[in-house]
Structures are given as C-alpha cells and as structure tokens.
Amino acid sequence: MGQPEKKKDLKRREIIIVASRQMNEQGATAIRLSKLSQLVGLTRNALYYYFKDRVALIHACYLFACKNNAEDLNFALSVKGGAAERLGAYIDRTLLGPNAERAVLTDLDILPSAQRSELAEIIDQNVGLLESILEEGISSKQLRPFNVAIGAQVIQGLLSWAQLWYRWAALDQQALDCHYQIAADAIKQAVLEGVSTDREFSVSFQQQWVDLSPRPFKAFDPESLQKEKRYQLVGAASLLFNKKGIEATTFDDIADQLGATKGAVYHYFKDKKALVKACFLQAFEQYDSIADIAINSSGNPLEQLLASLHLNCQAQMTRSPPLTLQGSISNLSKSHVSRATSIAEKMSDVRATAIAAGLHSDIDENIITLSPGAFFWISSWVEGRTRESEMALADEVCRIVFTGIRSLP
Questions:
Q1: Which Pfam families does the annotation name (predicted)?
Q2: Does the N-terminal or the C-terminal CB of the chain have fewer CB atoms within 10 Å?
Q3: pLDDT at 388 over 90
Q4: pTM for the whole structure
C-alpha cells in the first residue's frame, strides 16, 4: 500500500471512530456531518471524499464494529489455555483493545436491506464463534453446563452496554477515566465467578412480573379506556424501540404493531420526541416499581437483587416492556439520569448490605449499573435464539450473573 492510500485509510478509520462515538451518544441519524468534519479536521466537502453520504458512514461504522468483534473473537480463540482464559481475553480485547470505541448495533434497520443482511450475517457468525468458545468450555468441564445461546447473548449484551453505561451512571472523574477497565473487570468476574459468594445459590424465582404489575381497567369508562390505549401505544413503541432502535422505528411501524392507523398514533403524540419522552416516563415507572418490589420482598439482600434482575428480564419479554436506556437520546437523557441514578443507588445499598452479610462478592460497585446489559437486548434476540419459556430464560440469565459459568472446584 502506497503512502497516500495508507494516509487515506488512517483518516477513514479516524472518521469511523469519531462517528461511532457520536452515534452512541446521539443516535445514528443524529450525526451532524458539519460537526464531525470539524472534529476530524476536514471540510464538509472533504468528508464526502471518504463517505458519499450519511448512510454510507453509518454502514461503515456498523461494519467496523462487526469486523472488530470478529477479530476480537478470533484473537480469543488463539489464546492458549481453556475457555475461561479465552473468554477473559475476549472481554479484555473488546473493551481494552485498540478498537474499543465502536458503534453499538442498535439502529441497523435504518440501513438498506442488502447492508442489513451483510451485517446480520457477520453478527450471526460472531455469535457462533462465541458459542463455540462456551461449548468447548462445557465439553472440557472448565465451564459448567448452561444454555450457550442465552449465555452468548448475555455476554454480548454486557459488552454492548459497556459502551453506553457510563453516560447514565453517576461516575466521578477517576472512574470515567478508566470506565472500560472497570467494565472489563466487573464483567469477567460476574460472568465467570458470579456475584454470589455461594456459587450453588439457587436462582429459582417464582413471582411473575405480569402478576405483580396489574393495571386497573374499566372497559366502559372513557377516561380509563383512553389511558389504556395510551399505555399500550407507549408499550408497543418501547418494544419496537428496543428491538429495532429508536432511530429505525417509524410511526408506521408502531401503528402496524398496534393494528391501528398512523393517525391514531399522532392523536396521542405530535412527534417521535414526545413519544420517546413518554416511553422514558413509563419505563422509569416500571424500573422504579421493580426495584421497590425487590427491596420490599421478604428475602435476604442477595435474593432481593435476584428479584430485581429476574423481574427486569421478565419485563423485557412482555408486550409493553420498559424502554432500555439507550445512548441515542442524549438530548433527553439529562432529565432522566437522576431517576436512573436514584434506582441504582437503591440497589447499591442492597448490594452493600449483601456484602456485609457475606452473601455478595466484593465485585466493583459499578456492577449494579453494568448488569442491565444482561437484559436490555432480550427483546431483540429472544425470537429464534432459544425455546426456553420466559421464566426459564430469566432463570438462566440470573444463574449466569449470580453463580457464574466457571465450573465449581
């Protein structure tokens, strides 16, 4: 490769990394090409020398993320040792390697069909590589038996959330400066060893979120009917936002999901920004409710943490799940960070009590704000990935996080 071509490739890579950071902060379609060109030291016209339009740039960022994920997995497969060592190497390289800053794959549906198919194929191949590491570990008895399909998605979800979580967590500057190291260490410990000091801790949980969150409804009361319609609309939007991404979901998609007209959606919300705001308000009511139910349950502190994770997993599999805390709404997130922080603080207090009682390992306190990665993407992968029931799937996610996947001594 000649010097001009090498220089062009380096600049192209720089643009992709900076654009990926913008996508994680603001959403894929919110990238401002004028600001991006300033950040990378180019004129806007010069930027088009590298990418013909915004869609080409978004595709390049997602492709960069997918290909680097494949490189991380192949590197891990080359590491000497067993599955635990390879999994640790994969987590470290993903979050601490040369290409740690990459776009989270939340808005793939904004791309043309051919590009989506290309990325979906690479994603499936990457999941297959990760599953092969886990399967080898089970075969060699280095890892305990568990549902590999669910385990791979939990790990990928935690790594994806690690790209976004610090924007929602109340981190001091010292923690911000090393947030990827914090995330890598906490994820490795949680996945391999679990957060429970008792690695034979029972994660069986009987309560169901649908039974704990009944909604009073009077079918013949006009006001009650309107409230229920609005609740279902916000729930349908949240489900699609979680599955496809906020940017990729249209009012037409939401109307189809509801079996309604687009006009019916506009009757309640004048634009997507108003709808997203409503989704967040409804989501935090659900997150608050789950935290309060868990804290007020009769179990010990570790069982209360289990209840929180289990109920959150269940909630993501309902028709009206809480909107996940995505990085693509930074213009709205400031008004919601305090609520996210409040919930995290409540659960951190439970964690501290569990540690004092000798029930919870002394894993980094940020595991509380990192752990949502285990369930935030459930709605996007559950169909076709596993035949487990909702309760069994939630059990398995909790078993991975609480008791780890490394075999018992």
A1: TetR_C_24, TetR_N
A2: C
A3: no
A4: 0.93
